[in-house]
Prior knowledge:
Elements lengths: L4 H7 L3 H28 L4 H9 L18 H14 L1 H21 L2 H13 L4 E4 L15 E5 L2 E12 L6 E8 L2 E8 L5 E3 L13 E12 L3 E2 L5 H37 L1 E2 L2 E2 L4 H25 L9 H20 L1
Parallel strand pairs: 1-4, 2-4
Antiparallel strand pairs: 2-3, 3-7, 4-5, 5-8, 6-7, 9-10
Helix pairs in contact: 2-4, 4-5, 4-7, 5-6, 5-7, 7-8, 7-9, 8-9
Amino acid sequence: MAGSSLHERLYTPTDEHGMLRQTVRQFARDAVEPQAMEHDQSGTLNVALLRRCGDLGLLGLTVPEDGGGAGLDAVASVIVHEELAYCDPGFALAYLAHALLFVNNFYWASTDAQRARYLPKTLSGEQVGAMGMTEPAVGTDVLGMQSVARRDGDHYVLDGRKTFITNGPEADVFIAYAKLDDRITTFVIERGFAGFSTSPKIPKMGMRASTMSELIFDGCRVPRENLLGREGGGITNMMRNLEIERLGLSAMSLGMAQRCLDDMVRYTQERRSFGKPIHEHGQIQRYLAESYAKVEAMRALIYGVAATVTPQHRNRLGTDACKLFASTAAKEVADA
């Protein structure tokens, strides 16, 4: 990726962040990039590669050390998502679904007993995680959620469907939201639970190295101990996790935009017209300059906001702005 040493220090604020960036960048170049095309074309998640992220300690990046994680911050999460997306956005999305939508979400809502049961295998990558919120009839309008739960002795019984669930076809464990007494409540679902199944893979137009499916709850029996947080506490769990999710998605946009810009620069140096490299033509220089400015604006906003976000301190306005601006700017850079 382009940038001077001063530029790198600005967005890699500590030595620990610097070591993380160097490690993930090398991993992405050596292991992620070579397999990207194959898995995009086949529409398959490279589960073995996700497990290698576990070997590097990346799957529990934001989990405190006493919980078995790396104990790093939102800036660290941004670094990882940027570097992975630079080489393979599809794999980066699968990583986000596991590390943020499941692991980070689970940790901050779980009991010690639940952590002991589920974290070792999800931090190592032995088990793949996913999160089910979006529904066929209401999309991401969580207040309109139609999945329901009821109590039945020492179990809850869930009925409903989730759709467009990243990692759905491969995941072993899921966080799922359903309305209990008309209040959104969070549950941990294991693939083998009675009454639970997943649909065949949903076809995708892009980022095909991460897969999607529906989650189907047909009288799914969930043990009481798999209630995550308190009954009716699902909105709290959801909102607490949304900000770091938005930062991860924004960082993916940044990584993709930086890759587009680097490829633009390389191509305009190699391609010649009218006897000279095309980067010497004024209109091409305009495309490059505008794209560079957008990438740097994305970077400044995302890293600036990430520095303010902790599990105890929210920045909804900032993370909303990151996702809004970065996704739009990344498309504009890709189209340039």
